[in-house]
Amino acid sequence: MKQQVDAPLDLPPPPALVGPLRSNKYSAFVFPTPETADDPFSIEISSDTVQYENSLFVVWALAHEVAHSLFTLRPHGFAAQTTYQAIRPGMHHCDAEFCTIAIGAADVLWDI
To answer: What pTM value is reported for the model?
Structure first.
């Protein structure tokens, strides 16, 4: 994933947390914005997703959220920021590059 988006290879992944999420959310990429400056830069997977969904779906959700983190960092040169510009929900989902990277990452994680 990092090579495909020209990220530094030593860029650490965001922490992945499992816990309760808003209803109807399987997973989320959370990051601080000017409006939500206290939000952590993290991936959150719903505990219900882990408990009730197929393990392949959980792996896909993790890869999908990692892709969101990379696409959020890329405009900032992959440098840490105190806040990041908010993105419209689903904006990355329409990007063919995002889809290709998320699918490829899910395949790699599944193989591991």
So the answer is: 0.86
Structure tokens at 15: 């922490």
> What's the CA gap between 32 and 39, in Å, rounded?
5
What are the pLDDT digits (tens) for 16-70?
Answer: 999 999 778 899 999 999 999 999 999 999 999 999 999 889 988 999 999 999 9
- What is the DSSP pairing of strand 42-46 with strand 27-30? antiparallel
In angstroms, the CA 109 to CA 59 distance is 7
> Helix-strand-coil percent breakdown of the chain, rounded to 5?
40, 10, 45
For the chain, what are the domain ranges?
A: 16-111
